[in-house]
């Protein structure tokens, strides 16, 4: 009994520490969905592609072709996936000050300082490649349609690789003012001037 209690006490601090950091699989999922959505948004919505059967009938007609938007087409999504995990070089591990949990985010997503070490990025990139190996079909199928909160929908609700805390919003991307910094006139509301 004492051995069990001692084991629990020894393992508990490590368990609590690991629970405060988002999993690499969640980080990889977030990275991929965010990167895809960014690339999709960059495509002209008027750009179209023909899909379907390209067989020509004996009369010279092509039946079964239809035109769809290029941005979410399988062709475009397949192009994006080729180098998507290279984006891990643009990520850092930060503590979300609103939740207290460490999460993987694009370095431009927040002013928060975090781990940007090559070791962390290499782990995230490897996790990203593993994630594609395991979930490529689900990811590409999901991305064919737009979603209001794609990372939350796919990584949390659909796959369950992220907790609701992992996909919680980050604080606004404005660093808090340093209290030791002198005030400017612009800091004082007009009605108080």
From TrEMBL:
Stretches for region Disordered: 169-193
Pfam families: DUF3456
Signal peptide from the UniProt entry: 1-18
UniProt entry keywords in alphabetical sequence: Signal
Annotated DUF3456 domain residues: 25-158
Entry-linked InterPro entries: CNPY, DUF3456
Gene Ontology CC entries for this record: endoplasmic reticulum
Family: Belongs to the canopy family.
Protein's name according to its UniProt entry: DUF3456 domain-containing protein
Organism of provenance: Caenorhabditis brenneri (Nematode worm)
